[in-house]
Amino acid sequence: MSMKSKIKSFFGPQRQYAVAGASNNPSKFGFKITNWYVGHDIPVIPINPKEKEILGQPVISNVSNVLESINRGEDLDAYHLSKADGLSISFLTPPHITVTTLKEIATNPNYQTLIKGLWFQPGSYNAEVLETADNIGLGEKVVHEDECILVRGEEGLYSANL
To answer: 100-114, pLDDT tens digit by residue?
Structure first.
């Protein structure tokens, strides 16, 4: 699958999005990318174990909670996950945290259908991250190669007709 088609399939009209490594620090990409979603009125959940709220969005401590709610068709906190067709995640975590999160995702029995896209932002991945994504069967859903959603996101929204 080409990077362009992976970027397109990352987006969808019923999709829920999450930012792993979301931040309240405006100089960090975890803030800028969360802000990109909020600014485009795209349903995004900031994931951060330490924060309570980022850009007015309630923070969820880990991706597993989000996946479990989508799997059960239940809302989570202020998020209407019962209508979501799946989850696309932007990663801004250091590579070792990204690997841990991928392994955590793979504990959900339906993760392969629930996860629609994994966007590894520059700095969030290394060879081990890509190998882990392949090993859990999500390699075809990975956007990386130094692609940044701040640069390529508009194209993805457009190609997905959003």
So the answer is: 999 999 999 999 999
